[in-house]
Amino acid sequence: MLFAVIFVVAIISPAGVVFAVVWTAPPLGSAAAEAASTADTGPVRMLPAPDVQQVGLPPPDTNVYANTLSGVVPCPLCELPPRVYVPNSTAGTLDVIDPLTFRVIDHYSVGFIPHHVTPAWDMRELYVDNEGSSRLTVLDIHTGRPTGTISIPFPYNLYFTPDGTKAVDVVERLQRVEFRDPHDWHLLGSVGIPWPGADHLDFSADGSYLMISAEYSGVVARVNTVSMRLDGYVRVGGLPIDVKLSPDGRYFYVTNQGRMGVSVIDPVAMREIQFIPTGRGAHGLQVSRDTKSLYVSNRLEGSVSVIDFATRAVVAKWRIPGGGSPDMLQLNPEGTQLWASGRFNRTVYVMSTVDGSLLAKIPVGSEDHGLTYFPNVGLHSLGHNGVYR
Predict the structure, then answer these.
(1) Does the structure show a pLDDT above 60 at 30?
(2) For residue 253, which of 312, 335, 298, 314 has the smallest C-alpha distance?
(3) In whole angstroms, what is the distance from residue 21 CA to residue 42 CA?
(4) Which of 82, 128, 193, 350 has the smallest set of CB atoms within 10 Å of its CB?
(5) pLDDT tens sequence across 165-203
């Protein structure tokens, strides 16, 4: 009877899929979990090669995050007061926090279902991704307030290619990504993602392709950003969510809320080379300021795991006292504070990256999601809720 009910719920809504996969998943380390993991990483079907040949990966000594290591915000952005912008998805509002006092200093309505606050590639403005309204709310970085809107279809997420020539609108509802001119926002090309739940992505070191999660299908797909064509995929099972490129540019790390950990994917061979258990509801990712560690939010158990890039192993787990639901992550410029939206608790959490202690709990609106700490360190933004290189 229980499994029959779960099956019906899963058919009705994507949320039911999340519930069914997460709560029926066997405990980590069990024989059933190991068998499921093996089954999920079987043979991969490669699509035909794109028209444009991809550039080779960088040498091992490359650090794609080299421009974020200093901990110093570049000027003239350095003259701006720091702010943390928090979109409240259910409430349709935005909270603005002063990170020096941990207090909300502004609050206003934006569009319907705002999911993330995205810095422009040149960081001259911010965009609130209002999926339900099919528009971006443009924010002035000096005042932190709206100045206008831009109409694009159902922007669940927004990214920019590393060279700044294309904006990428992740249209989850229509199972596609749209490449747009970031100056006038006209359509350059559209790529269908033939699996439900296109959510989060990251770019290769040279920007020639991106890897995008398809949450409700257990697939991570590869899209050529030059030819704007789908050119491969790997099936990892579960519920893949956030995606981050390793500092050496060789592998992609993908959280998996269903399998309760992180997949390490080789984007050339298009296969999962390792799975790292972290905790129930593995969801958001953030690279540490020294680029030696990867922070993972475990949304369904109220914790953050720390993965060491060198060993690809969990070296620490920080639990939020009293529990919580950490979702998307951000660092302050110095890298000493890890900020997390609390998706189901109307709370923003601030944790010390020195010892994992909780520094603050800040009340915000309903279903706070992709918060961004701005300004921050880096030469340009790749979008999302603040990914810099």
Answers:
(1) no
(2) 312
(3) 19
(4) 82
(5) 999 999 999 999 999 999 999 999 999 999 999 999 999
The reported pLDDT for the residue numbered 62 is: 86
Core vs surface per residue 12-29: b (16+ CB within 10 A) or e = eeeebbbebbbeebeebe
Q: Which strand (E) or helix (H) includes residue 111?
A: none
Q: Cα 233 from chain centroid?
A: 19
61-86: pLDDT as tens digits: 689 999 999 999 999 999 999 999 99
**Continuous segment of H or E residues that includes residue 62:** none
336 token code pair: 């000493």
8 A C-beta contact, residue 99 and residue 107: no
The pLDDT tens digits of the residues spanning 324-338 come to 999 999 999 999 999
Q: Which long-range contacts (CB under 8 A, 24 or more apart) does 91-98 make?
A: 91/365, 91/366, 91/367, 92/130, 92/132, 93/365, 94/128, 94/137, 95/364, 95/365, 95/368, 96/144, 97/348, 97/362, 97/364
Of 174, 227, 169, nearest to 201 by C-alpha is 169
Give the angle subtended at the CA of 368 by the CAs of 363 and 373, to the nearest 5°: 85
Contact 296, 315 (CB under 8 A): no
State the burial class of residue 30 (Cβ atoms within 10 Å of its Cβ: 0-12, 13-18, 19+): exposed
Classify 184 as helix, strand or coil. coil
